[in-house]
Amino acid sequence: MLTDEEDRSIDDDMDENGFPSLQLVSEEEEEEEEEEETSVRNGNEDPSVGVSQGSFASNFYRSGTDWSCLLESNPQKSKRLKQADLFQVWGFKKATGTSSGSMVSSSPSKEKNKMQSVSLERFNDRMNSKVPSFGKRKNWGGDNRRRICPFYKKIPGTPFTIDAFRYGLVEGCSAYFLSHFHHDHYSGLSKGWSHGPIYCTPLTARLVKMSLLVNPLFICPLELETEHVIKGIKVTMLDANHCPGAALIHFRLEDGRCYLHTGDFRACRPMQLHPLLANHQINVLYLDTTYCNPKYRFPSKEDVLEFVVMMTKKSITKQPKTLIVVGAYSIGKESVYLAISKALGVKIYANSSRRRILLSFGWPELSAKLCSRGQETPLHILPMSSLRPETLEQYLLTYMHQYTAVLAFRPTGWTYSEVTGNQLNLIRPRLSGNITIYGVPYSEHSSFLELREFVQFLRPNKIIPTVNVGNAAHRDQMQSYFQEWLKEQ
């Protein structure tokens, strides 16, 4: 964990509306960047996003929410560079002078941890490392001002924050909620966490303790589908249909107001049957807007799984010595390789770090199918970042006496194409010699149409987007979508 002295940033962390101007790069955002680069190379660059007439931020603030604490105390304050002694930077020499505004940390080991990039491959290799890594966009070793927690990570009228660990000790917060165990949500948690209790689902709690070595005294598991009273507020965790342990978090305040924070989720019809969502008006909805763009109209998970199994069987029939590879994040995409395992009647190979995580789920069906030797099964799980022809060619060499070809699946919503749409049979794989890679639109986030249906079902009084909010044009465009959805009957 970053200590109080290390958790610093520059003045422009927030824009004038209290939104972050810079954000962590998550595993899924890295996938998005790769897919967008590919799209541009293929001449399919997205059109620019238009700006609606009314600003989302101005509409939100005009509703009466107090956001004054998010403004910079002196936005006109000039920024100056400071020359540093490299021997002080590297920790070989103590700082001279009395200034507390040092631009760098004097600890080389801490600086190294802050400079690590958010890479799934490195995450898998270093799952047991004590300090989680930060995004690749910025060196956060700035001045002595603490980074401000964005308003959309705070629940009004409560001392609660959601997925706000990288801001350290948040003023006025006495309970920190974690929606799920993906790096861009738990970043900031580590062995040294001591700012307050962490509330999450039991599965997420096991991962936090096992992988981040957080002191168990700070971890407070909350069972799904059970109402808990925390600081006088009723809190219920609901299945988010995202990755294992992910939760929607429902808050009911003493005055009857209800807030729903989706974390990351894929909206589905069963959610509309839940009494808490069907029978109580949601005053504020904190919405996962990862795919809040009309071009994302994913097929169902079931349809994608059926396609994956079909293509696997065809490949095995044509070439029995085919190694099947499924790409996955640190957690998530389990249904894809479980479907293949069931269809072929084979075990699932994953390295020791991933096996340790999967076994912690406590899912007997999955645990029984795992094996520790790659030679025992043709079905292997690799980091999503490894699904490149050159990487898979090297991987195949390890098993050259057993297999002569690789069939790989990259299951992520970023592979969705408007050209193929829901016609999965139109998907064309990437071919490179004996390597075949299918990008399949298996998403664990809501599509644009699923977001619309969910919003129209809930009809909340206010919607706060939580993803892609660093750009004013994107925020205004999303707000225009929300207004349009709520006008429809």
UniProtKB/TrEMBL annotation:
It is found in: Nucleus. Coiled coil: none annotated. Residues 1-55 are annotated as: Disordered. GO terms for molecular function: 5'-3' DNA exonuclease activity; damaged DNA binding. GO terms for biological process: double-strand break repair via nonhomologous end joining; interstrand cross-link repair. Keywords: DNA damage, DNA repair, Nucleus. GO terms for cellular component: nucleus. It comes from the Eukaryota. Gene3D superfamilies: 3.40.50.12650, Ribonuclease Z/Hydroxyacylglutathione hydrolase-like. Pfam families: DRMBL. Residues 1-16, 26-37 have a biased composition (Acidic residues). Residues 365-471 form the DNA repair metallo-beta-lactamase domain. Belongs to the DNA repair metallo-beta-lactamase (DRMBL) family. This is DNA repair metallo-beta-lactamase domain-containing protein. The lineage of its organism: Eukaryota, Viridiplantae, Streptophyta, Embryophyta, Tracheophyta.
